[in-house]
Design a protein that fits this description.
Strand order of the largest sheet: 4-5-6-7-8-9-10-11-13-14-15-16-17-18-19-20
Distance between the termini: 53 Å
Structural class: mainly beta
Number of helices: 5
CATH topology: Porin
CATH class: Mainly Beta
Radius of gyration: 23 Å
Order of helices and strands: HEEEHHEEEHEEEEEEEHEEEEEEE
């Protein structure tokens, strides 16, 4: 019965009539399926911001004015003390984007967390600092060759006040759920370096090189950036799809918009790869792959505005799952940079090996705008025991943008339920987590985000709630 209801909804969305207004303009009716541009945005298929390509060369480039005022300033609460430094950088970035097809950004994030209690006397306070330098270079855009460019991300992180082996999740008994997806303990690593190529008016996009599978699979708009949104890992991609979904590794992806409002995303990745391992393990026989089918409906929101959705279903499988992740964690020592925090995989009754049986999992997501400034996200995933340290997960998120009318501010609240795999030597309880944050635009370049996580039910330790308070400062240069 359910599948007939879903089919009927799809037919209804595609057959909604388009009427003509009194002035002759076409008036869109809702509900309907989104156009190709909105579909590509929902599917995260836009690898760049639409800048002009570097080639062919421009005959007369415009002059670079480093002192020009910002054309699109952010509505900060206070004047920016870094304006003298940041204005030339942003003007240079605007110039390289318009004249060279080169988009780039730099931001640094500081985080402090304090827990109300810990397990076995572990520390309750920790800090993190992470630097991100990314660029996207559109090399050419040709009617015959298509649109091609390079994506790149360089990242460096440090643990402040605690050894690199420390994680707040282990300290409070939340593992394998990661309470701090921002943590990055590599001194420096080139995480992304890939070529992306689009054809057919960008309805088809292929990417190959060192990628992040979560760029293409189970990506969402309201909980996909731990430097600006939620800190806990469950809200940033379904953990049940395996650690490979959340790491930087060699691979390839294909994104297709066969019809307006629908999309297909496929990704293949090397499960033995990682941020510091390049692509040298490609060809060793390991694979992780996923296929996602999505629908982008447009409805009338509660405030009368048009709001987009992103509904999808994904299936993923691998021949190297938990055993390979454990091997990778052992080889990289105390690093927390691979997967959803490989350092959180302790306690599994699985041998660290490059050999593994085939495992699989599936997931579904509904991300839907409710009003122009209100969005909801629902996710559920399930997998075989050996696919991930978490074999069942449900996430629900609500985000209110511009709550007080100020641009780029947001309030978010999320709930996550996770069931650890049965492969733990000592069984772990099902985990319930609530997180809330408020992102404040302090200045043109600084965002401050108070954050609180309530671990309603930990996996280990005393079975009573734990509170983790956080304060995050992100500076964009």
């Amino acid at each position: 019965m359910t599948r007939f209801m879903h089919a009927g909804l799809l037919v209804s969305l595609t057959q909604v009539p388009i009427v003509t207004a009194d002035d002759g303009a076409i008036a869109n009716r809702t509900p309907r399926l989104a156009d190709v541009e909105r579909t590509r945005v929902a599917a995260d298929a836009e690898q760049d911001e639409g800048s002009g390509p570097w080639f062919p060369f421009r005959d007369s480039p415009s002059p670079l004015d480093l002192d020009a005022p910002r054309t699109d300033p952010v509505d900060g609460l206070f004047p920016d003390p870094l304006e003298a430094i940041i204005r030339p950088l942003r003007n240079a970035a605007d110039w390289t984007r318009s004249e060279l097809g080169l988009e780039w950004n730099v931001h640094y994030t500081l985080l402090y967390q304090h827990a109300s209690r810990s397990v076995d006397g572990q520390p309750r306070d920790a800090g993190n600092g992470r630097l991100d330098l990314g660029f996207n270079w559109v090399v050419f855009d040709d009617a015959t060759l298509g649109r091609g460019g390079v994506g790149f991300l360089l990242r460096s992180g440090v643990e402040i006040g605690q050894p690199d082996s420390f994680t707040m999740s282990e300290a409070v008994g939340a593992a394998p759920v990661n309470l701090n997806a921002l943590q990055w303990t590599y001194p420096i690593s080139p995480d992304l370096l890939y070529w992306h190529q689009s054809w057919c008016d960008e309805r088809i996009t292929a990417s190959i090189g060192k990628i992040h599978p979560n760029q293409f699979i189970q990506s969402n708009r309201i909980a996909n950036d731990e430097s600006r949104q939620f800190l806990a890992g469950p809200f940033d991609g379904l953990n049940t799809l395996g650690t490979t979904l959340g790491t930087y590794t060699g691979g390839a992806a294909l994104q297709v918009v066969p019809a307006d409002g629908t999309y297909l995303s496929a990704a293949w990745a090397d499960p033995a790869g990682g941020p510091d391992r390049g692509i040298r393990t490609i060809g060793d026989g390991g694979w992780w792959a996923a296929m996602q089918v999505g629908l982008v409906p447009v409805f009338e929101g509660l405030d009368g505005s048009e709001v987009d959705g992103n509904w999808n279903f994904v299936f993923a499988g691998t021949n190297q799952a938990l055993s390979t992740a454990l091997l990778g964690a052992a080889e990289s020592g105390v690093s927390n940079g691979a997967g959803f925090g490989n350092i959180l995989l302790g306690g599994l009754d699985v041998s660290a090996s490059s050999e593994s049986n085939r495992e699989w999992g599936w997931g579904a997501m509904i991300e839907q705008g409710l009003a122009s400034d209100l969005d909801v996200l629902l996710q559920y995933g399930s997998s075989t025991d050996g696919m991930s340290a978490i074999d069942r997960q449900f996430n629900a998120v609500l985000q209110w943008s511009r709550p007080f009318g100020r641009r780029d501010e947001a309030i978010g609240i999320g709930y996550s339920w996770s069931r650890p795999t049965d492969l733990y030597a000592e069984p772990r309880r099902e985990i319930q987590l609530v997180e809330a944050y408020y992102r404040i635009q302090l200045t043109d370049s600084m965002q401050l985000s108070p954050d609180v996580q309530v671990l309603l039910r930990p996996a280990t330790g005393p079975d009573r709630p734990v509170f983790v308070f956080g304060l995050r400062l992100t500076t964009t240069f």
